[in-house]
Target: Adenylyl cyclase-associated protein
Amino acid sequence: MEEKLIQRLESAVARLESLSVGSQSRGIDLDAMAASTDPSIIAFEDLLTEYVGKVSSIAAKIGGQVQDITNVLSESFSVQKELLIKIKQTKKPDMVGLAEFLKPLNEKLMKAISMTEGRRSDFFNHLKSVAESLTALAWIAYVGKDMGMSMPIAHVEESWQAAEFYNNKVLVEYRNKDANHVEWARALKELYIPGLRDYVKSHYPLGPVWSATGAAVSVSVSAPPKAASKPSGPAPPPPPPASLFTSESSQPSSSRPKVGMAAVFQEIGSKPVTAGLRKVTDDMKTKNRSDRAGFVSAGEKEVRASAASVSKVAPPKFELQMGRKWVVENQIGKKDLLIEKCDSKQTVYIFGCKDSVLQIKGKVNNITVDKCTKMGVVFTDVVAACEIVNCNSVEVQCQGTAPTISVDNSAGCQLYLSKDSLEASITTAKSSEINVLVPGPDNDLVEHALPQQYIHSFEDGQFLTTPVSHSGGSSWALDAL
Model:
């Protein structure tokens, strides 16, 4: 009996030794296999299948830029899964190592941001929704309260709040137009709220858990430049764009070398104020010099005026593109612009116009006023929304109905509503001096100033927000146009 027991023990020891030898040659693969079977990783795979898969399948039906940006979203979540697996095999790095570790995720996020830049496309709101929402994946960078970042759950919620502004625009624009876009926007929200938020809450409420015995993050350090005796080869490439995950915050400002204008001001401050100045004698003063006259000739005035009037402005446009989109661009000083033949499937995009007036007769699907100054827009009916973005001193008048009017990053906006458009939902963000004029008694217009200042007070465990009210009359009657 004892001999059989000893034999079984010896065979078990031999088997363990063989497994130990095999694991040394395949140690990394075994660690990765063990990490991939962790409950948190399995739950993240379920998140990819259920939520990311749903967004991707709907985007495939839409195609175009919506599918392209959704592919970037899917790639970003896949990269995060790989990083979560690596975290279980890696020691907690410092800020420099963390930036190096998160570089693959940062590249995907920067790719999404780059797709929103340049000329504004018809799917700009889709692109911005994804680009803004992908910052939620940065919860994986949380390493403690001292880094100045919200805790993981709060970070996911805050990131989606920034993206929801554009996601709501997609819902409003396509609610009576294309059900696929509406389903895409709803699926995108479900991916983050409750999808990613609940996942982080269940598995990483205090941030990722790094391995205590894992390998350290390897940081690539470039070799110091050698003294070149002869110039050879092309010039070095420019530095890469700034990363969303940067290690500069971990270094004190006093220890970092001054660059750019900071270096110029430092050099100026290090010298005496009067260094290098010459004493001005009486004969050097303009009033005592006989070769200088105290007037400017008319010819010189004309040269200066003509030089100041020259500005780089793109050529104006006023055209219907593909039968779907009216483009009104770079119109300067045109008071008689008119769009008369339009229908409810067409959109109107007004860009870069100044000191002009556009009248839109008929019903259109959507109107966007972008980067305009002293611009007036008069329209009859709009199906989805009228959007005012990056504008200064504009006046918009609705003579019929408009379900939604949004004002974003604009100053000095006058909105004139008719009796049929009083139920319009007005959304404002990062804007000031917004006044809404509505019909009053005797058909006079009554002006209402929308608040731009708010008071936030903490009561009963939550913040209550109320607009600041000013005395002295916030509304008054104006003569009808």
Q: What stands out?
A: The longest strand covers residues 354-370. The two ends are 109 Å apart (CA to CA).
